[in-house]
Amino acid sequence: MSTTAFLGANDELAQARIQFRSQPHPIPADARVAYKLAQVALVLNSFNRNSASIENLHLFTWSLQSRRSGQMLLSWWLGNRHASTVTQRSDPHLPVALNVGLLRGMVEITGTNQSRVSLQPSGVLFAQQINSDDDLMSAEKTYLRQFKKLSDAAVSRRLARNS
Asked: Fewer CB atoms inside 10 A, N or C side of the chain?
């Protein structure tokens, strides 16, 4: 039985031409490697000695994903959180950006169990270039400045974590 016989020869749907077209879907900004690398550079540049534990790097890049996650971390930081709240967060796009950063010589991963990420001179220069342009990533820079100079110890103290 043909489609026209089933629907009726005069049915609009039977006469309609159906086409499937592939349309590109925009990639969210935080899934773009260049943007994520810029976030990594800014976050690490906000930490003492341009270096942070992988756990804290995940936490702060996660907090840059949305206004809600940023407000949540800031609330935890200021002590306005529930005691049962888990403060360990993961950024699913960070591993790819770190691999590219390693290949480009922008970051180095060291420490026990490869648990520490540090900006290398080219990564520090990248962060400085971003910081020198007021229009570039202004929301991210304003957000990170609220935390002053960061360190792994300060994060552990503020969030009452034992890393």
From this structure: N
